[in-house]
Amino acid sequence: MEHVPAAWLTGAADAAARQGSGNLLRVVLIVMVVGCVLTAWFVLRGYGRHDD
């Protein structure tokens, strides 16, 4: 068996083509929702303070 430096890359591309984009889309959506929640918390946390 020959050692091909980019064999892992072609193997990963073949596996991704067989599996589809379901896992990637799921990860992107989860990261987006968590980012939106953290951004909303950061922006809205100052509205409850009454600095007189």
Automatic annotation (TrEMBL):
<protein>
    <submittedName>
        <fullName>Membrane protein</fullName>
    </submittedName>
</protein>
<feature type="transmembrane region" description="Helical">
    <location>
        <begin position="24"/>
        <end position="44"/>
    </location>
</feature>
<keyword id="KW-0472">Membrane</keyword>
<keyword id="KW-0812">Transmembrane</keyword>
<keyword id="KW-1133">Transmembrane helix</keyword>
